[in-house]
Amino acid sequence: MKSVPEKSLTYKRKDCDLEVSEQKFKLRLERICGRRLNLRINDNVSSLLNVTYPRARPKDPAGRKEINVSINRIFLQAPPEVIEAVGQFIRRATQKNRTIIRRFIYENWHKIRSPSAPRRLVVKGKYFNLAEVLKKVNREYFQGKLRVRISWSLPRGRLDTVASDKTEHKRRRRKRSFRYIQFAAYDETHRLIRVNPRLDNKRVPSYFMEYIIYHEMLHSIIPPRLTPSGRLVYHTPEFRRRERLFKYYEKARQWEENCFDKI
User: Residues 3-27: what's their mean pLDDT?
Assistant: First the structure.
């Protein structure tokens, strides 16, 4: 497979470090896409760019109302070619503008604000002590050398969202709709593994908890890869190979598939 030329992944520092005002940024995007925008700049790390189009109505068949755009503030520092790609993406998403946007995100991921680390790490649950599980997995698979922290995430019923990978479980909810249960997530900024407190359940086997933590620990040593098409891949072939080294891998996946809905 052809690798992406280094030149196409790099932007001049003088362009990237100059942050334009939100108003100027909005005007530039409107000029490029030819539509009025309702622009919201935020620090959302789960959806860096989201576009919602108004429904066309009989009196307004062309749908000329404002387009709702939610975008991470890192794009205020983007060079002209990336801003051009964002404007074109708003007008009509193509493989070309998607690739440019993804490459910019990949190259500037370290600048994107991540959720603040909790002041106090909560490791003791009713059935699992995360610190003990982390220590065991670290000793068995990483010679005790990995330096990551761990904590239970948000209160039961809420799911924590961070900038990195999400270990999810697809759960049926009616005939054709699904919802996702996020087991855990690795926050690269704080080197912190956050675990969904729903897993603190007597029905969850210890090998499954160890598998989830092992999975997230792998993300701390195996970086994502940017494909030539501009797609960011977290679960690379190397990641999958290392993941299968977990001694209860098949057993854990089978339990997830057949038993998780019971908790």
Answer: 55
More confident residue, 244 or 1: 244
Which residues neighbour 195 within 8 Å (Cβ) at sequence distance 6 or greater? 130, 150, 151, 152, 153, 183, 184, 212, 213
d(CA 70, CA 41): 6
Helix (H) or strand (E) holding 15: helix 13-16
Residues 218/165, Cβ–Cβ less than 8 Å: no
Question: 180 — phi, psi (to 5°)?
Answer: -115, 130
The arrangement of strands across the sheet holding 37-42 comes to 37-42, 67-72, 49-52
| Cβ atoms within 10 Å, residue 22 | 14
How far is 87 from 124, CA to CA, in rounded Å?
48
For the record, the structure tokens of 243 come out as 């993941």
Number of C-beta neighbours around residue 247 at 10 A:
14
215-242 pLDDT, tens digit each: 999 999 998 887 776 677 889 999 999 9
Structure tokens given for 130: 């995360």
Assess contact for 72 and 112: CB atoms under 8 A. Answer: yes
Backbone phi, psi, residue 86, to 5°: -65, -45
Q: How many CA atoms lie within 13 A of 182 on its CB side?
A: 22
pTM: 0.61
Cα angle for residues 143, 197, 152 (degrees, 5° grid): 50
The answer as to CATH 3.20.20.140 being correct for domain 130-262 is no
Beta-bridge mates of residue 171: 179
Q: Where are the domains of the chain?
A: 6-111, 130-262
Q: What is the pLDDT of residues 251-263, one digit of tens each?
A: 999 998 887 766 6
pLDDT at 60 over 60: no
